[in-house]
Amino acid sequence: xxGDLVLRVIAxxxxxxxxxFGLYVQFHGDYGPGGGFQAGVIVAAAIIFHAxxxxxxxxxxxxxxxVVELMVAAGILLYAGVGVATMLLGGNFLxxxxxxxxxxxxxxxxxxxVELGVGITVTGVxxxxxxxxxxxxxxxxxxx
Amino acid sequence: xxxxxxxxxxxxxxxxxxxxxxLLRRGTLTWLLAWLASWSAAxxxxxxxxxxxxxxxxxxxxxxxxAPWGIEYRVDAVNAxxxxxxxxxxxxxxxxxxxxxxAEIRSEQHYLFWTAYLxxxxxxxxxxxxxxxxxxxxxxxxxxxxxxxxxAFGNDRRALVxxxxxxIMGTIGATFIVIGVGLLYLMTGTLNLAxxxxxxxxxxVDRPLLAALAFLTVGISxxxxxxxxxxxxxxxxxYAPSVSTAFLAATATKVAVxxxxxxxxxxxxxxxxxxxxxxxxxxxxxxIAAMFVASLVAxxxxxVKRMFAYSxxxxxxxxxxGIGLANTSGLTGSIVHLFNHAVAKGAIFLLLGCVALxxxxxxxxxxAGLAKRMPxxxxxxxxxxxxxxxxxxxxxxVSKWYLVMGAxxxxxxxxxxxxxxxxxxxxxxxxxxxxxxxxxxxxKDLATANEAPLSxxxxxxxxxIACVYFGLDATVTSETAATAAKTLLESLx
Lengths: 144, 493
Fold this sequence. Notes:
The structure holds two protein chains of two kinds. Chain A is an all-alpha fold. Chain A has helices at 5-27, 36-54, 56-62, 65-88, 103-138. Chain B is mainly alpha-helical.
């Protein structure tokens, strides 16, 4: 695909917009359709798109595997961390109402953080699956 | 604050420890973390059990949303007992595992093993503790997916195939369960198990209700490896790493049995669905078939791990037999056998792991003369084997006693005779192991072998001693099981 100028230029133009749309779906999930899962898939799709056009090695340099693995773990930790925080603040596990002075604000904050955790983990998992499959045919031994 | 949140922490502690393992990456650190998490889970479950026996059912509203709208964690005598069982087994295995996986799994994958282990533990505890039907499915998938990974870690190439086989069967099972849950939701508009139970008790028996029961029963039976849905089990147990086999044999099928108990008694117990349905009879027939067929197949196995895997299928038959009897003694026998079989099989697979550390996964002939080279390992195998047979003084006797009592209370002396007869089949395959270990000259594989390190022997022997201790003094286990059985029978009409 290296010689295909049109694809490369269009990809360069599109990827930032896909990422922004991902963020919109992520943070607008409280009010409209969307949420962490969908946003995670969209963000991962942008990066997979990058890999399809520019090749896996470049993408791996931009988003290294250790970052992806970190994302998988960090998202769950953020989710569970919110739960632990609510317990420390005297509520039940994931009882967002205690997160802020007003229960409604607390619920907003809680769902925002939890969905962010979902988004991060979903992006990570999508990418790690893609890296595993895409990397396998090239170098069966350097993987894992 | 901690004490009121214990039901959530029971699941959350291993669930949080799992991603932290991925961040830590270092084999030793993750092992220490797994140790910490599994021992805290065990402590929490013991506190919960004591509290339940003392004060009755505990209900915990996740996120502060009250049942039946929110997800409820509901701990009664039945699942408190299973929680203790699962988390204790998990706790005993962790110290053992370090040396064992050191020999069987590549060191750069150790942190992934511990992640999968903790996720599996969290999933199993979650299935057990939750009072919400959909939550059951979610945690079942968490534990199952982790289980497939734990099996695939085996260094035999067939481990991958076995894991894939289990993946297919397990996914069919999980799909059936979610279809059953979906039908129940359609009928009642609620996912809370207690609420479902209350609502379907007032409903006439119609087709969706029967279909829900059928889907749930078949799905759960796949997970618990009820004969003839056990085909995934022997390969999965045989080719998984020793630690995974011991952990899964002692916990995963037990949790599935708990689900069967929960759905047949607590959820469907008050409905009229069993009125014209030979449910108990079907379960009895399949259990008897499991006891005999699987024991017979076990006798002819060459691979020792496979032999005891088939023996597991047979032992699960005893557990479901008590469910089919559905009287106090029978059910007590079932529930106490959950524990008893877990310690016996846990002991056997951990001891086989000790053998595997020295000579690789053993065929029966390679274990010749084991008693001369690894006397403690061989002796442990004998004690645990005796408890599989059900010799007085071991845990197996206690459970079979209750099962026979349950059969006699119904006046089914033939069933009592069948239980005893099938135990004779267990004598045959256990004797094959004893004969080879004790009355042969050491095989050339064992020529230079010696006892496994203490870090492995001690956890294995904890199970062996539990086999004898709870066989001689069964008050704690059988009284708890009897309380659990009463709780379940109270929910019947």
